[in-house]
Amino acid sequence: xxxxxxxRLCPQCGTQTPASIAACAHCGAVxxxxxxxxxxxxxxxxxxxxxxxxxxxxxxxGMNLGVFLLEWLAGGMGVxxxxxxxxxxxxxxxxxxxxxxxxxxxxxxxxxxxxxxxHLLLNNYAIWVIGxxxxxxxxxxxxxxLYVTTGxxxxxxxxxxxxxxxxxxxxxxxxxxAGVMATFAFKYRKEVPAALSKDIRRxxxxxxxxxxxxxxxxxxxxxxxxxxxGLIAGIALALVIPFKHPEERETPxxxxxxxxxxVVVVMASFVLAFRNYDGPQLRLANLATAPGSKVIAxxxxxxxxxxxxxxxxxxxxxxxxxxxxxxDAKNALxxxxxxxxxxxxxxxxxxxxxxxxxxxLDLLRRQKEIIQRxxxxxxxxxRAIDDEEALTAEYNKFRQEFDPxxxxxxxxxGYGERPRKEPGASTG
Length: 428
What we know:
Blueprint: E1 7-9, E2 16-18, H1 32-49, H2 55-74, H3 84-90, H4 95-101, H5 106-109, H6 117-138, H7 140-161, E3 167-168, H8 171-187, H9 194-217, H10 224-240, H11 253-275, H12 293-320, H13 330-344, H14 351-376, H15 382-412, E4 426-427
Parallel strand pairs: 3-4
Antiparallel strand pairs: 1-2
Helix pairs in contact: 2-6, 6-7, 6-8, 7-8, 7-10, 7-11, 8-9, 8-10, 12-13, 12-14, 12-15, 13-14, 14-15
């Protein structure tokens, strides 16, 4: 049958249908020519977009691994937890440091810190899965802008809505990338291959919903404020930042300039973190330390040192009250030796803690000198009494400063007055 001008014969139902429309007006079947043309167009799209490099995705994964190795060398890194003292020293989000000490760089550095091996593994896998696609679709420049910006917005959201949480992790930025990808699938559903848009929506939306529900059910462990902040930021950015079309050969200057701004901000933040680092010394021996082990060791050793000084004072006072007998302060001296051993074995946790340790050592050494001098004087205790009273006054002043600090330090690291559990931090 000869086709009329402007019409074609539908191979499915055999009726004539307008040639300008790909689908048959009667049965809806798509012409083979249109199918081939659509397939060719989709192939060119995939060929142009998904053969692009993903260098910044790999760079971000490498940075996460490198920073985690430094955290590990500082000690207290576990499978699913980490010492808060180490996290804070490396630049975790802590509201007091940001608000009181103006350490705004923490809003950036916390995105590259992780709380244990599982946290690192899961986030890096997520970056590997979703980051590669985003970088290929949007291009490297826009990808880095999206990642850094959503990560910082997630940190700011945590700062305002989770003020008590010490947070770290790339999850906020990952939620941001998920928001970008979901928005891309809806915004460009008529411009990109239908299979791609449909596949993104089918896979991504349930994952976002499940992770948000998990975040709400695991409050105190997961920083959902950061996740939601990152997700909203990703959606908003994807609405205004266009993806890199297949025909776009050169990235516009504005995106390359903003990319450099992001690189400078990240580098400057880590320089400031390095200059402000006051955490444990990096040592290979720290690779074997468990989370919280240094904090617990500090608490127990310092408690032993301080209590030993107090008990030594009581025993020495008893010795001074024994009139008419040869001086015997062996018990007091033994307690001082016990305190000295504990203070000397106390690990370094931070500069303030080390200051208190050195002060405790000084008090114990002077107590030891007073007791030894008393024993050598064969019971002439008047000078010993005067020296002991002066030292006791210093000890009382020490306790007035040390006890509140120790209580705050333990709470800051996830413990109460007496450590009985592993410390906690919120993952982001």
